[in-house]
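job 3f2a | input accepted
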Amino acid sequence: MKWEYKECRFGDIIRVKLGSVYHYGIFVSDDEVIAFGLPPTAENLKQPKKIKVLATDIDVFSCGNLVETATLSLKEKMKRRSPEQTVAMARARIGEDGYNIIHNNCEHFVNEIVFNEKVSEQERSVREKWRRFHSE
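job 3f2a | predicted structure (136 res):
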C-alpha cells in the first residue's frame, strides 16, 4: 500500500499524521469519516470518554493536517471489500468500543473493515524496534 496526497473517494482508507503517529479512517464524504476514536491530539486525550468507533467530518478527522489516501496494489485490490461493503461495515460498527493501542487501534480497524485482516503496521514497527533495542 502506498500513500498519496490525492482526492479521497467513497470507501478509501485515509490517514493523517499527528506528531509521530498516524490516525486512520474510512472516507465516506467530506461530511463523514468513520474512525476508531477521535484523532489523538492533546485536547482529545484530555477527554476521559471511552474511545469508540465514530463518524465525524474531514476537518475534525484531519485536525487541519494533510490527509493521505491509500493507493492499493493489484493484490490488495483483489483482497479488498467493495467500497459499498466497506462503508456499510464501518457504519455498522459505529459505537463499538474496546480500543487498545496495541491490539485494537484505528489502523487495525480500517484494515479489518477493508481487508478482513486485523493488522497494524505502526504497531508491528514499534514491536520490531523494541525487539532490536532489547536484543543489543
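job 3f2a | The mean pLDDT is 91.
job 3f2a | closed
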